[in-house]
What we know:
alpha+beta
Amino acid sequence: MLLAGLSTGHTIGLAIVAAIFIGFALVASFVAPRRRPDFPGRKGIGIFAVVCVLLFGAQLTSVWVFGAESEAKGAEHAAGSSHRSIAVQEKEFRIVLPALKTLAAGSYTFVVKNVGKIPHNFAIAGGKLAGPTKTPTIAPGQSAKLKVTLGQGTYQLYCAIPGHRAAGMNAKLRVG
């Protein structure tokens, strides 16, 4: 699940660290014992344990580093300014929002980018909503903006193209 929400660069970085960790585990489990039946031996057990712990720590660190989404920075900027915008990415079949705690009521611009391979749109429903409720269809690689005023409440964000919402293109947003 983590890989589905990450950008390509983050996915590649996480995959490289995972490949090193898995490669070490396979070599230590299957290859080394065939060549040296007493692997890692009395003298090598300490080094083997340290390498295992270091690689495990590297894997955990890579998940923490590569798992951070850059859109969270955009949300922090939006919270402190008079013009509030929220970057949204849509792809098959998921809506990716920045890490938002709780939004204050007010006017927002959803900047929606279709990073998928098929057309999508972006719709919002619920709460105390003023303004248009959906974007036109967004072609792959293109963007659209949706300016709305959000009052206190819970909102459903979704793709209104038939079948997309049921396939998982929905999210919740809380205001107030």
